[in-house]
Amino acid sequence: MRITRAVTHIRLSDTNVGKLVQLDVLAETYMRLCQQYVTAFCTQMAPDKYATAWLESPLSARWQRVIIQHAAGIAQSWRTNRDRAYTAYMDDLAAYQERSRAVMRDPSEQAPSWKEWNTPHLKQIILQANANVVALEPSTDSTFDYWLRISTLTKGQPICIPVSLAAYHRTALAGKRLNASVTLTRKPGGWWLTVSYDATVAPTTTDESPIVGVDVGIASFLTTSTGKRYGAFQGQLAHRHQRDREKRRRKAKLRACLKQKGVTKLPSPTNHRLARHVRQEINRAINEFYTDHVSYQVAYEDLSVRTMRFKAKRMNAYLRAAHLGHLPRQLAWGARKRGQRARASQAAYSSQECARCHYVSRANRPDQRTFRCQACGFTINADENAALNHQARFDDRKMRACTTKDEVRTLLHARHVGYLEQTGGRSLPARREPAFGRESLMGQSGVGHHSRRNGRKHQRPAS
Ligand SMILES: [Zn+2]
How many A from CA of 164 to the centre of ligand 1? Predict the structure, then answer.
């Protein structure tokens, strides 16, 4: 497996202020043009990395190509997220209308609504450059490690900025061949460089390796099908969040007041320190998870905007700042760099499906924490039930072939009917009670999962 590793936080020397001023001017022009292309790619045309430049700019053709690529990337991910949210809204609406027709709707329930997304507004100054515009050259001068040669607005007059590495950067980069692309980030305190290199990771799992299902949530950041939990929005963290909410309310008042007075530079509504703290907690949870699951294949949930909304509700804005939505990507990255196979499983109905009999119903979730199957009585922690479903879906070809929620629902219904036929329609007593901490990790998740998978195989002679 080939992976690209980034080395971040390399500070550009600020000994020559004049050069950095030139870089600031360049960056301003870069960001202005990048913003224009982002907006165009979001509203007028499909994002195209190789589009011919059509907007006026004092930047060289090479810089413009770099900017178009950068903008296309931003616009593409915005469009994907927006479309996903819109599909989720349409699903919600269809379900709402169905419940209304069947007179099964709580009269107080409001119809889902859609508010069109704003196109991205680029705030952070980031230049994504390739070798055509920025080159990192080893320095022969012993004082610095590299020279960063950057083409500027003035043709034929690049600036050269010295780069010195910290000891840990030198260790990380020793013997590595750096990639030609670099990222330059402007922070209030100065300019920072990110470089990267490619590395090969030997696989540590095979198709026969045990599979662990992971559910992402708030009560616990990660809940596994092996019955473990990692990281929690509890204790000190929850307390800090509570305090933060009060502070935000006060800040909001202040902002409104300042706005009325015509002040344009308003205090930021986000608590960056708390967001950073949550990110660190998330990282720790992921590392602990991998320490406990060496040589497991990982079945994770590709957390959609929709699921996040259900899971986070009142904490939404705040959790965006904390990057909870990035958790699946971080999990996938954690697996890649350890050589473990990871795959995002089909997410539809994974929190409503009974992991034992496949019955799907909203009513299976009497509250946020509990899963209680209305058909077979299976009772378990809701996140663990979802984790078991992710685990079972890892190798589930029929499930992977489903492209719509309806198809998933039809498939699950057929499996539930199959389960009833097999068991003679009797409700079995719950085989697997919530048993956190009682199961051994190497037990491959015990009876529940394996007998279930075997059972399912018997129903599918074709596959
Ligand atoms: Zn059930």
Answer: 61
One domain for residues 13 and 42: yes
On whether both 288 and 169 belong to a single domain, the answer is: no
CA 375 – ligand 1 centroid, Å: 5
**Domain-located, residue 389:** yes
**Do 324 and 192 reside in the same domain of the chain?**
no
Q: How far apart are CA 448 and CA 389, in angstroms?
A: 11
Residue 459 lies in a domain: no
Residue 451 within a domain: no
**Per-residue confidence band for 7, with pLDDT thresholds at 50, 70 and 90:** very high
Give the pLDDT confidence score for residue 269 in this predicted structure.
Answer: 53
> β-strands 2-11, 190-200: how paired?
antiparallel
Give yes or no: residues 152 and 13 share one domain. Answer: yes
Residue 430: inside a domain: yes
CA of 432 to the centre of ligand 1 (A): 11
Cα-to-centroid distance, 374 and ligand 1 (Å):
7
Question: Cα of 430 to ligand 1 centre, how many Å?
Answer: 9
Give me ligand 1 centre to Cα 345, in Å.
Answer: 20
Ligand 1: distance of its center to the CA of 395 in Å? 21
DSSP state of 132: T
The pLDDT of 55-71, averaged and rounded, is 96
Per-residue exposure over 33-67, b if at least 16 CB sit within 10 Å of its own CB, e if not: bbbbbbbbbbeeeebeeebeeeeebebbeebbbbb
Residue with tokens 């708030």: 218
Give the tens place of pLDDT for each residue, 111-124: 888 989 999 999 99
Range of the structural domain that residue 139 is part of: 2-200
pTM: predicted TM-score of the whole model, two decimal places? 0.72
| pLDDT band (50, 70, 90) for residue 430 | very low
Kindly give the distance from the C-alpha atom of residue 357 to the centroid of ligand 1, in angstroms, as a whole number.
Answer: 4
Gyration radius from the chain CA atoms: 26
Which tens digit of pLDDT belongs to each residue from 395-404? 999 999 998 8
The segment with the largest mean pLDDT, out of 38-47, 139-148, 311-320, is: 38-47
Q: How close is the Cα of 402 to the center of ligand 1, in Å?
A: 22
For residue 106, how far is its CA from the centre of ligand 1 (angstroms)? 24
